[in-house]
Amino acid sequence: MSGISFLYVASSNDESEAFKTMRKKHVQEASKFDDSFYLTQIFNYLSDTYNSFTATCRNALKQKKEEEITDYVRRKLQNNEDFVLDGFKVNSEARNQDKAVGYYDLKFENGDWLNQYFVLECKPINDTKSRIDAYCKS
Length: 138
Prior knowledge:
6 helices, mainly alpha, 138 residues
């Protein structure tokens, strides 16, 4: 427990003031982390999620549409208790008929990663040239 410190908040009739004090201390501590910290965490969770898929699941996902892959990955992450307790959330893009350029499939955020987020596309790319070319348009 050597790296753990505790903050004493005096009892008060104003619980919101105690919460503000704790939140302020937490934000000060969390501000020590940079973008690479959050990106590393996101990629670790994505890697763990992918590695948890069985071979059968991976093969089935390769045949799915982009939206189905996105939904599957998003649900897996949202149901990962550690992902949620670490303050992360993941959302899917709004689905409409007229998608604007620059839309994403998954958007990752963290309550402590102020004013920042990371977006990711989920594509069913395999080693066939047509699938790769469809995604890598210049």
